[in-house]
Amino acid sequence: MCRRVLLDDVNFKLGYPKSIKELAKCRPMIDVSNSEHRHFRRLITAPIVGHKALEVYLERLEDIVINSLEELSSMKHPIELLKEMKKVSFKSIVHVFMGSSNENIIKHIGSSFTDIYNGMFSIPLNAPGFTFHKALKAEQEEILRKRPASQKRLSLNEVKQMVYLSHVINEVLRCANIAFSTFREATSDININGYLIPKGWRVLIWARAIHMDSLYYPNAEEFNPSRWDDFSAKAGTFLPFGGGSRLCPGGDLAKLETSVFLHYFLLNYRLERINPECHVTSLPVSKPIDNCLAKVIKESCA
Ligand code: HEM
Question: What is its main location (predicted)?
């Protein structure tokens, strides 16, 4: 049913609440006809879609990750990891779209971004002590072992070899996605699966309900990256990046950033949480209420 709504550009249009539209302020992507949207979408997505496009950014993403981890581990006081992750992700996006690594520009735009998306970027990170840490670290060490001595940086092919890591990322997207809902508005009276949705009514596409449905994901409440071994989700049952004409064009870039970050984190750092038993809230997104207050510790200095 969710997929049907996402794929139906005739009977549904974007239906975000006014507050979100105001914040997004991206008229070309929100407030236009379908054909205008297709045109703008092509312009916006060209720099971030496909192997070749992503390869261009890999080295800079690595620099951003390496420098950020170095900086975080040098801090004397605990940091709110989720806020810091948001900054890392923001630096990468500014680099991709504006070609800038100027700290002042990043800081300036970043503070507006933080106000808007406060608390939204909250993907939980694997940390030492978690069940999956050992397997994840072993996979990253294997990548280094197989690397020719002359190669100093990560390659996109190596990222593709991070199979277990990609399963962990999928499982995080399934269980704790930051895009908690997508919003549509019916443009005509429409009957879906026997339910009449009157024209003008809002529809919330609640992907979490599908991601947590045991029909598609046995023991859905369990965080189990291995469920992705030799498994592809059926069409319409894995929607972390939405679907249809509005499918998120940044999905591969987001996964690449996460993989690069975890590669360096797993190999060289560990996390010491200040409140490991801290309550985890689920609405609108899943995150520990202390924003994961923690110290990042460099292993060699530990
Ligand atoms: C884990 C990270 C991300 C998640 C979970 C996510 C999720 C989503 C979802 C669900 C949509 C569809 C919204 C709808 O149908 O109403 C979307 C759209 C979009 N996303 Fe993402 N996104 C992520 C990262 C990114 C990144 C890194 C970029 C850019 C660098 C990006 C750029 C966009 C754009 C431009 C759209 C609008 C596409 C359109 O309307 O045609 N996203 N995202």
Answer: membrane
- Enter the tokens of residue 290: 């202390």
Whole-Å CA distances, 197 to 145, 182, 201, 286 = 57, 16, 7, 29
Residue 246 Cα to ligand 1 middle (Å): 8
From the CA of 89, give the closest atom in ligand 1.
27
Classify residue 260 by its DSSP letter: H
- The reply to whether 175 sits in an annotated binding site is no
Beta sheet of 269-273, edge-to-edge order: 79-80, 293-298, 269-273
- The DSSP symbol for 284 reads S
Among protein residues, the one whose CA lies closest to atom 32 of ligand 1: 250
Distance CA 55, CA 137 (A): 23
| β partners of residue 185 | 13, 202
The ipTM estimated for the assembled molecules is: 0.98
CA gyration radius for the chain? 20
Number of domain units in the chain: 1
Question: What are the pLDDT digits (tens) for 61-73?
Answer: 999 999 999 999 9
Residue 278 · residue 290 · CB < 8 Å? yes
Is residue 121 very low, low, confident or very high in pLDDT (cuts 50, 70, 90)?
very low
The CATH number for 146's domain is 1.10.630.10
Pocket test for ligand 1, best of 95, 241, 248, 285 (most atoms within 8 A of CB): 248
